[in-house]
Design brief:
With about 525 residues, this protein is an alpha/beta fold. The chain is about 45% helix and about 20% strand. The strands form 5 sheets. It has a 7-stranded mixed β-sheet with strand order 4-1-5-6-7-8-9, sandwiched between helices. Helix 12 (about 305-315) packs parallel to helix 13.
Length: about 525
């Protein structure tokens, strides 16, 4: 008998880098978006590999125990929405990773009664993987209703200025329904009820639905489901709980940095009481499978008193997992960092953004460089690793502000640092100051009074080539994987050697301006960094 599934949740799709390479060839190699992509990968035997893909490929050739791929682990989004559906009486199943579970997805589409599929765009950065997914689903089942929602979709609809542009964008994705809400749980629930009962969609808020070849938009309504109202039931996912688990104790962010649209989309910063945090951590500990927790809160250590009490709670309960999180290090003090270490904190992700006070002020960062220095120095003192994210090219950026940032990284070095080309979004507060800064363009193609996106890429490439930093530069979103490597027996020195060797390969590409295989010399250095355990 076929299983009945009201909603099949689709998680991550780490779009193949080879496909993205082909797409960007149509834009041209000298565009800032192509150059930004170019520093993320090396070629080996004609195939492109990002920094984790290469270490995974080489590791799995030399080691019997495979590396954990975090794109193939249960996401907080699936756990949260799955718990919501279960709480409201809907049946559900899930695909954690499209690339890993294509066969499972095809089997469910052909051999189960799947009513709807929800594509969750939390980790998606462009429309290409969404189109791929829709095409794959239609290949195996033309009757199932496809629903798309999540942060990427919501951001794109905010970005499109006219209704006709919004409709054109949605039609290009090929789904049946689109949930346009920063959260969207209630919209999804109402939609499933209407589909099951064959009733009208007109009274469902925050929805686009297909009708006679057109898309109909319903009324909008602010939708807020609190974390307390929908606590994740981790028992539902017990069989798939990984060593690494992503959890959230707050929504939104109390700050309003001018480069970020997150608070505007997500609304007021709210957070769980410590009673609820304790309840969730207890439920995870009782299952006994989780060794490492990643708090995905945008600002875990605000409010400060709550954060300290949470650290004391974790120490008192003696949980057997280590943890890492985003961390506003300008609010560091010795007691807090000492509590972090004692409670099992291994690593923190620092949104430093710049080592220039002028740029921090332009960003409305509400932070002082001297406080960043103090925070990083305290983390180093207590042996907590840090990964600092820096933005290159924000309005006001000059040669001098870049030098200030490099000086900061050398004088108060985080464990690793990661430069990003500034992404210009009309949805962020800086757009309201575009006349002040002479700002035009968007995404990775922009210019302002002191810099343009290609000049910013020049500076990132210059840093990669000259390596004036005391810390390795990660040229991709590698933060989550640092701990994966360490937990698989690699030392911190090996990681530095590997990252530096990978960057040497990128340097070869930048100097030669040829997109060819990494040289044997660099490849041997990369290999030797992995096998010397």
């Amino acid at each position: 008998m076929k299983a009945n599934i009201d909603c099949l949740l689709i998680g991550s799709y780490n779009f193949e880098i080879g496909k993205m390479e082909k797409i960007l060839k149509t834009i041209g190699p000298e565009s800032s978006v192509s150059r930004n992509f170019n520093i993320r990968y090396l070629k080996h035997n004609g195939k492109p590999y990002e920094i984790f893909e290469l270490i995974e490929y080489l590791h799995n050739n030399y080691k019997s125990e495979k590396l954990v791929n975090l794109d193939e682990t249960l996401s907080n989004t699936i756990a949260y929405l799955g718990s919501y559906l279960d709480n409201h009486g809907f049946s559900f199943d899930y695909i954690i990773s499209f690339l890993k579970e294509k066969e499972k997805l095809a089997d469910l589409l052909q051999n189960s009664n799947v009513l709807t599929i929800a594509i969750l765009t939390t980790t998606y950065g462009n429309q290409f993987p969404i189109r791929d997914l829709v095409s794959f689903i239609r290949k195996y089942n033309t009757e199932v209703k496809i629903i798309i929602g999540g942060p990427y979709l919501n951001s794109q609809l905010l970005f499109e200025e006219t209704k006709s542009a919004k409709i054109a964008f949605l039609k290009s994705l090929g789904a049946d329904f689109y949930v346009d809400s920063p959260q969207g749980e209630d919209t999804l629930g109402d939609l499933l009820t209407a589909i099951k009962n064959n009733t009208s969609f007109d009274n469902i808020y925050n929805l686009y639905y297909k009708q006679d070849g057109d898309l109909i938009q319903t009324s909008s309504k602010d939708e807020r489901v609190t974390l307390e109202e929908n606590m994740i039931n981790w028992q539902l996912f017990k069989k798939d709980l990984p060593d690494y688990l992503f959890i959230r104790t707050s929504l939104s962010c109390p700050f309003s940095c001018s480069f970020c649209d997150f608070p505007a989309r997500m609304g007021k910063h709210t957070y769980l009481s410590l009673d609820y945090v304790e309840r969730e951590l207890d439920s995870i500990a009782e299952i006994g499978k989780v060794k490492y927790i990643r708090f995905i809160d945008d600002t875990l250590n605000i409010p400060k008193p709550r954060y300290k009490e949470m650290l004391k709670l974790m120490i008192r309960k003696k949980y057997n997992f280590k943890w890492n999180a985003f961390y506003r290090c300008q609010f560091s003090d010795e007691e807090t960092v000492q509590l972090m270490k004692e409670s099992g904190c291994e690593l923190v992700h620092l949104g430093i953004e710049s080592g220039s006070q002028q740029i921090l002020d332009n960003m409305h960062k509400q932070a002082k460089v001297k406080d960043f220095r103090k925070g990083v120095d305290l983390l180093n003192k207590y042996g907590i690793m840090s990964i600092a994210t820096l933005i290159m090219g924000f309005p006001g950026e000059t040669d001098y502000t870049i030098k200030e940032t490099i000086d900061f990284l050398n004088q108060s070095p985080p464990t690793f640092s990661n430069f990003h080309l500034w992404f210009c979004s009309p949805m962020t507060p800086i757009w309201q100051e575009k006349e002040k800064y002479g700002l035009s363009g968007w995404a990775f193609n922009w210019k302002h009074n002191t810099m343009d996106s290609n000049r910013a890429m020049d500076e990132i490439e210059k840093i990669l080539i000259n390596n004036p930093l005391t810390t390795s530069i990660l040229n991709t979103m590698l933060a989550e994987y640092v701990l994966v490597f360490l937990h698989n027996g690699y030392s911190l020195d090996q990681l530095r050697m590997y990252f530096n060797s990978f960057n040497d390969g990128v340097k070869e590409k930048l100097i030669s301006r040829k997109n060819v295989d990494v040289s044997n010399e660099v490849l041997e250095r990369i290999k030797s960094s992995l096998i010397q355990i």
